[in-house]
TrEMBL record:
UniProt name for this protein: Phosphatidylinositol phosphate synthase
Its EC number(s): 2.7.8.-
The entry's keywords: Cell membrane, Lipid biosynthesis, Lipid metabolism, Magnesium, Membrane, Metal-binding, Phospholipid biosynthesis, Phospholipid metabolism, Transferase, Transmembrane, Transmembrane helix
N-terminal signal peptide: none
Length: 241
């Protein structure tokens, strides 16, 4: 199998602005999760099943617990399932079965999971959380995260390397939001003051996503201009022959 379409271009041009977690944490979690991935393979579980069940668990955790303000239990459930996103690819690679379909399913269901997490938070602030501004910030996190991912997918689809990941990738969005939500949930267990972590995290993710969006759009604009200029030059050379 050649390089999956979803990651095409990553090897061609060195990627600048590689986000911290993808750079440092992925290797660590790959080592930690490889035995578990191997165990699932031995039990006959497929990578697609892990992708689907993992997403279902994240969606259930986010949409059942977060709208009720149960941030601790919601985060515990989401955390249990969100690592499936690292396990599925690990299984596919161990099996030598990394596929275009798998890449598509993985990325598409990432968007579903992210939508549920920030949607669940928005529902809380729109309801009993009663905070219009934080509801709007949650919706902004949801929408900007999806657009950030889209810039890379669309850029790669039109044949550009999109050689930038930017400040805040998906892993950063998730870690910042989930760690804050988990700790903020401890307020219900009597820990004072800690509930403010979640609003702070949402603002950080919102601003970080906006910066990342600008970084990616600027990169795609430059790469597109370079690619178009190269095409025009080669057409001019052809016409001159
Ligand atoms: C006392 C309070 C207790 C609270 C309960 C527990 C709290 C635990 C809190 C948080 C845990 C958060 C874990 C989040 C793990 C995220 C793992 C993950 O899914 O990473 C996915 C990411 C990307 O994978 P893909 O290549 O499959 O996805 C691509 C990506 O989506 C692209 O999007 P873009 O970036 O462009 O926006 C798409 O373009 C592309 O299509 C798509 O394919 O994987 C990585 O990046 C790898 C790195 C993973 C790093 C995980 C770090 C976890 C770090 C710490 C967790 C532990 C924190 C402990 C807190 C303790 C609190 C007590
Ligand atoms: N069901 C799946 C899921 C993933 N893949 C492959 O893994 C890549 C993603 O790796 P992660 O470590 O980020 O999960 C993806 O691009 C596919 O190549 C798969 O084949 N089947
Ligand atoms: Mg995955
Ligand atoms: Mg994924």
């Amino acid at each position: 199998m050649g390089q999956p379409v979803a990651s095409r271009g990553r090897g061609a041009t060195p990627t600048v602005g590689k986000a911290m977690l993808n750079k440092y944490a992925r290797a660590f979690f790959t080592r930690v999760l490889t035995p578990f991935a191997a165990f699932l393979i031995r039990r006959g579980v497929s990578p697609d099943t892990v992708t689907l069940l993992g997403t279902a668990g994240v969606v259930a955790g986010a949409l059942v617990f977060y709208p009720m303000g149960e941030f601790f239990w919601g985060t515990v459930v989401i955390t249990l399932f969100v690592f499936s996103d690292l396990v599925d690819g690990n299984m596919a690679r161990q099996l030598g079965r990394s596929s275009r379909w798998g890449a598509f399913l993985d990325s598409t269901l990432d968007r579903v999971a992210d939508g549920a997490i920030f949607g669940g938070l928005a529902l809380w602030y729109a309801g009993s959380g009663d905070d219009t501004i934080l509801c709007a910030v949650s919706i902004f996190c949801l929408a900007s995260g999806q657009v950030v991912s889209y810039t890379k997918a669309r850029g790669e689809a039109i044949g550009l390397p999109v050689a930038v990941n930017g400040l805040v990738e998906r892993a950063e969005r998730l870690v910042v939001s989930l760690v804050a939500a988990g700790f903020a949930g401890l307020h219900k267990f009597g820990v004072p003051g800690i509930q403010y972590l979640l609003p702070v995290a949402l603002w950080i993710v919102a601003v970080g996503s906006l910066v990342t969006l600008v970084q990616r759009v600027v990169t795609v604009r430059r790469e597109a201009a370079e690619a178009d200029a190269a095409t025009e030059e080669s057409q001019g050379t052809e016409a001159a022959k």
